[in-house]
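Exercise: predict the fold of this chain.
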Amino acid sequence: MSGSADHTARIWDTSTDKPLQTLSGHTLGVTSVSFSPDGRLVLTSSIDGDARIWSVKTGLTVQRLKFHVSTVSQAAFSSDGRWVMTAGPTTAAIWQVRTGRLLYFLNGAHGNLTAAGWSPNSMRIVAGDTGGGVETFTCTLCAHLPALVAQAKARLAGLR
């Protein structure tokens, strides 16, 4: 997998060193690329302010994630493949992969968020900012249904 200043990303056959798919659609250079955990999707980010989720099989855009005002410096799938995080230039955003819906965004306390990553359980986010800071966030929406139900019951019990 590679991203390029020519506005494309490529999926490579490592045995022949030839591209299997060329992903075209960004209008400026590609800044990051990654496979989903199951290998069926590719995530790209770009200087054009977009992140895109692509089908490996067809090479077509499945979701266009448009929120950032300029360069999306990084994008990453959560370890369970249900969520995507995009970072840059001023904030990080959490997206639902299935719908492409923006769930919420995170702001850095010390500067613009330009890099972000997921914890192995997809519940915590680590983000780096231009001020040299590193911040962590909890993604309460990112839990599986049983964990969300338990969290809701605990909150309801606290209201009584």
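Check your answer against the key: The longest helix spans residues 145-159.
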